[in-house]
Amino acid sequence: MNVRTSLSSRRSTKGYRRPALFLAVAASGALAVSVITAGQPVAHAAADKPVSVAAQLGLSGSSSAAPSADSLHDLQALTASRSQRATETAAAAQAQTMADQTKLAALAAAAQAQAQAQAAAEKAAADQAAAAQAAAQQAAQQKAAADAAAAQQAAAAAARPSGSFPAYALSKLGGNQSQFSCLQNLWGKESGWNPNAKNPSSTAYGIPQFLDSTWAGTGIAKTSDGYRQIDAGLIYIDSRYGSPCGAWAHSQALNWY
Fold first, then answer.
1. I want to staple 183 with a disulfide (CB 3.0 to 4.6 A). Which of 217, 225, 234, 244 is the partner?
2. Which DSSP category does 67 fall into?
3. Is 241 exposed, middle or buried (0-12, 13-18, 19+ CB in 10 A)?
């Protein structure tokens, strides 16, 4: 009897229902047996004890169609393991992404902080340089002002008259001895050519013995400088009497000028 026929007979008489996987394996095994026994005498094939595919697969004839509880448990465990691994993989990928983002943010913050620090340092250096330049300019201006003041003082000292007050007055009169003689008599009488002479009964002061109101009319402030007193006296005499001799004549007539 043929193995394919034996398997077919067993399936029809017992009416077992097999899972799709078992049926496919059984069909493959039947084809293999059929190929192997092709060309051999039927009597020789029938002499061998037939072996079912179920026995070859290690399945008993009384196996039920539903998988066992252990098989379901193993399948569930496998599924759970795969799901857990997928979850862990996704979580690890998300954690890595967050770590990368955190690292990039830290690097960006560090770069920004460094740029701000560099900008602040450059600004501080520029401000310091500007302050130093301003201080140098101010020092230069102060030095220039001091040099100018020193030069002015030196020029004033160089131009300052020297010698006696009468000699200075003669030089201001252009060396005119006649007019100087009248002036010498006038101021000799008023103050004796003393720049510090004071009248106890009035504000008359200095070589020309000017009152405070008289000083204002000369354009020269009241001063203890005898040379400036001579300048103011000659201005007053020239504007009022025209010459020292005219002032002396008035003084002789009225005892004042």
1. 244
2. P
3. middle
13-43: b or e for each residue (b if 16 or more CB lie within 10 Å)? Answer: eeeeebeeebeebbeebbeebeeebeeeeee
Q: Which residues pair with 224 in a beta bridge?
A: none
Determine contact, residues 160/227, Cβ cutoff 8 Å: yes
Q: How confident is the model at residue 3 (pLDDT cuts 50, 70, 90)?
A: very low
Q: Which residue has the higher pLDDT, 87 or 167?
A: 167
Which CA distances in Å does 256 have to 91, 238, 246?
A: 121, 16, 12
Question: Which is nearest to 176 in space by CA: 252, 247, 244?
Answer: 244
Provide the H-helix boundaries in the chain: 3-14, 20-37, 42-47, 53-56, 69-159, 165-172, 177-190, 212-218, 226-240, 244-254
The pLDDT-based confidence of 31 (bands split at 50, 70, 90) is: very low
Percent of the chain surpassing pLDDT 90: 53
The ranges assigned to domains in the chain are 3-59, 93-160, 165-254
Report the CATH fold assignment for 165-254. Lysozyme (1.10.530)
Query: What pTM did the predictor assign?
Result: 0.42
Band of residue 78 on the pLDDT scale cut at 50, 70, 90: confident
| Alpha carbon distance 191, 188 (integer Å) | 6
Angle in degrees, 0-180, between the axes of helices 165-172 and 177-190, rounded to the nearest 10 = 140
Q: Which two tokens stand for residue 204?
A: 């008359």
